[in-house]
Structure formats: C-alpha cells, structure tokens
Amino acid sequence: MIIGENIHKSFGDLEVLKGVDLHVKPQEVVVLVGVSGSGKSTLLRCFNFLEMINSGKITIDGHTIDPKKENLSKIRAEVGMVFQHFNLFPHKTVLENVIEAPITVKKMKKEEAKKLGMNLLRKVGLEDKADVYPSKLSGGQKQRVAIARSLAMEPKVMLFDEPTSALDPELVGEVLQVMKQLAEEGMTMVVVTHEMKFAKEVADRVIMIDQGTIIESADPKTFFENPQSERTKQFIQLVE
Amino acid sequence: MLELFSTVYEVFMRTYPGFLRATVVTLQLTAIGVVLGTVIGLVFALMKISGSKILQGIANIYITVIRGTPLIVQIMFLYFGIVEIYTMDNFWAGAIALGVHNGAYIAEIFRGAIQGVDPGQREASMSLGMNRKQTMQRIVFPQALRRSIPPLGNQFIITLKDSSLVYIIGVGEIFSLANREAAQSFQPFESFLVVALYYLVLVMIFTYLLRWYENKLDVDKA
Ligand SMILES: Nc1ncnc2c1ncn2[C@@H]1O[C@H](COP(=O)(O)OP(=O)(O)O)[C@@H](O)[C@H]1O
Ligand SMILES: [Mg+2]
C-alpha cells in the first residue's frame, strides 16, 4: 500500500534517514519504535510529503510519486496523518474541523459532509461534542476528533506520530481503543508510539529505527521475545 | 487651586461646541487612517510573506522608510509633494498621510500574526489535502486576524493621538483648535489642559470598547 525504497533525507549537514526501506502491505499495521531523534517523525512526514526526500522512491497504492510533477495536495489527501499535538483548528467547531477538508478539497455538499462528519464523530464516540470548540475538549477527545478529521478524507493509509504522547495517562486508553478499532476494520496504519502494549496487541509488524536506519523488523512476538540486534534489546528493556 | 479649576471650567464651557465638532474631525481622521492603513498593511504583509524576493524587497523598503522617519515629516512631505501635483483638501492629505504611516505598522502586525500561527496548523491542513491557498484562506488567515485584533486596537489608539500632528497643515481637529484657542485667549495652559482631557476621555472610551470586544471574542471561542 505504501512503499518506501532507499529513502534518504538530510536537514543541511544532518543526515536523518540513511536509506530506509519500508514496505507496508494493504491492511497491515506497522508500529515504528526507536529512541527520540532516530528519525521516526521524519519518515512519516516524508510519506506524507510534508518533507521532501533527497533520494529514494515512494509508492502509494501502486503509484510511484514524483514530487516535482505531482499534485502533492492530492496525494496528501490519500495519506491521513495524526499528530502528537492534535493540531485541531481552534477557530472551528468539532464538526467544522471534520468537514473542512471534504468541503474545501472534495467540494462535497455541506449537508452530505455533515452527515459524514456526524457518522465519524459517532465512530470515535464524540457526536455529542459536534458543536463545541476544541478548547473545550480533553486531550483524548481532541485526538479522537483529529482521527475523525483525517478519516473524513477516506485516506488509503493512516500515519500516527506519537498520538498519545501528549496525553495524561488516564486518557491514553480511549485513543488507543479508537486506533485498535480502525485496525480491526482493515485500515492500513503506520504508528509511531511508545505504547508497547498496543504494539503487542495490534501490530502486524514492529520496526525499530535507529539513527536513520531500520535495524529490526519482525512480528510483535519475535520482536519482543527474540530481538536480533543489541540496540533493540536495550530499547525493549528501557521501555518495559 | 480652586481658581485654576474655575478658569479651566470656564474655558471648557466656552469651547466645547467647537471641540465637539473638532472631535468628529479627529475621529474621522483616525478612522480613515486606520482603515487605509489596514488595507495598505494587508497588501504589504502579503508581499512580505509572498516568498518573492522582489515583493519582499519593496515591502521592506516601505516599512523601513516609514518607520524610520517622523510622522510629521511624512505629513509635510505628502502635503507639499502631493497637493502640488494634485489638488486635494488638507483633510484628505492628512488622512492619507496617517493611512500611509499606519500601513507600515499594521503590515508588521499582520505579518507577525500570520507567522505567529502555530506551524502545526499549516501542517494539519496540508496533510488533509488542502493546498497552500486553501490553507492560508481557511486556516491561517482567520486565526491570524484574531491574533491581530489586540495590536490593531492598540494601533487605533496610537493613531487617535497621532492625528494631532496634522494640525501642522491646518486641519481643524481638536489639537489645532486648542492651539488656536491658546493663542487667542491668552490661556494656553488651560486650553492644553482641556484638550488633554478630550484625548484622555476618547482613549479611555476606546480602550474600554476594545477590551470588551476582545473579551467577547474569547468567550465566544473558549
Ligand atoms: N525541520 C528540521 N530541520 C532540522 N533538523 C530536523 C528537522 N526535523 C527533524 N530534525 C532533526 O532530525 C532528527 C530526527 O528527528 P525526528 O524525525 O523528529 O526524530 P524522532 O521522531 O524519531 O524523535 C533530529 O536530530 C532532529 O533534530
Ligand atoms: Mg518524533
């Protein structure tokens, strides 16, 4: 569904991604782990073309993307992204947040968009919050709205960049629950997270990225019980 | 003390019909100065964030020149520079000078407000498939506008006071009236004290209105 081949990305002199290969199959849930600064966010941002890769190849749903020729907005619409800090639009209500892109980008009729928006809010358990502004929501609620907002564009794949890291511990569960449900419905997902329980229960594959390269890639059981690299062993001890 | 009070009172009672008329002129100058300044400011702010080196350069020159020279010089320059070529009454020369002056400050207010919007907002918008233009129009500008309301209000109050400087080209706003009154009545102290009170009351009224409006905005969205 989404394939990265030999991806290189530098910021000035700092080489952050050093030839990453990642092949995410349709309906697969890949959990990406690694210490802070290892390049996880950068990789996700490259997949969504919020950052441009220096070299390599990105293929989405069988279509190899040439950033110079392509309408990147159209591609971004197919790749949903959920951010650590939610980034809800504070000047819009919850429902307006969700229906903004369908109306502006897809030119969907307002009535139709509202129906879609309410369905998605119901899915994340927040239909009663449709008309409030984001500032009135808890962190967990905000993130659930952000997920609904992404889903409104019917993306082919969803990227999550530490979706629960900014949340109070008691609010983490409700967000993970929504993500788990999405995974069960067959959404293709790439998730950066430190929630190892989620990785064990939901992931099809866990990938360890270290200093800009993938050093371990295995099903969760193998990853946690029989990791190959020393760095992965250390990392697992650190987070568990 | 009591004597001062009574002479001030006497000057006030004698002059208030004229001052009320002049107050209208002051408010007109201020309103035109701010509205014109907002339009000019918006254009130059957009030039500054346009990414085009040429447009940025033009905007930078404008802002540097205007902010680097006194308003009174700008008023005289515009008055003698423009009225020479194109006949215009003094009121409009003064109002346009205030607008041009404000434009530079308001451009910086807008630029700061636009750049002050969390970059995450732009990213979230782009990640949903909105293009640059849609992102600016629907996500960044509305938030920037809200952020710029307090500093714009501040600029309005500065303009209210700055409008006194157009007395130099003989526009009949409140300071020029006070100036004339001071000379004719031989009561300069009382005259300027009275005009200071006019400014003070006007500023207090507008400060109050602005604060009320800002609170209302906050309550609506919070
Ligand atoms: N826009 C940027 N400009 C310069 N350096 C960046 C930028 N974004 C990320 N980096 C650097 O790239 C490295 C990897 O960052 P990131 O992908 O955010 O790591 P992670 O998400 O794994 O913590 C870090 O050293 C970070 O400082
Ligand atoms: Mg990160």
Structure description:
The complex is a heterodimer of chains A (240) and B (222). With 240 residues, chain A is α/β, with parallel strands linked by helices. In chain A, 38% of the residues lie in helices and 25% in strands. Chain A has helices at residues 40-47, 72-78, 94-104, 110-123, 139-151, 169-184, 196-202, 220-225, 230-239; strands at residues 2-11, 14-24, 29-33, 55-60, 63-64, 79-82, 157-161, 188-192, 205-210, 213-218. A 6-stranded mixed sheet of chain A has the order 6-7-8-3-9-10, sandwiched between helices. A 4-stranded antiparallel sheet of chain A has the order 2-1-4-5, covered by helices on one side. In chain A, a hairpin with a 2-residue loop joins strand 9 (205-210) and strand 10 (213-218). Chain A is globular. Chain A starts with a strand and ends with a helix. The mean pLDDT of chain A is 94. In chain B, helix 1 (2-49) packs antiparallel against helix 7, helix 1 crosses helix 8 and helix 2 packs across helix 4. The termini of chain B are far apart. Chain B contains 8 helices and no strands. Helices cover 86% and strands 0% of the residues of chain B. Chain B has 222 residues and is mainly α. The interface between A and B is medium-sized, with 28 and 20 residues. The structure holds adenosine-5'-diphosphate (ADP) and magnesium ion.
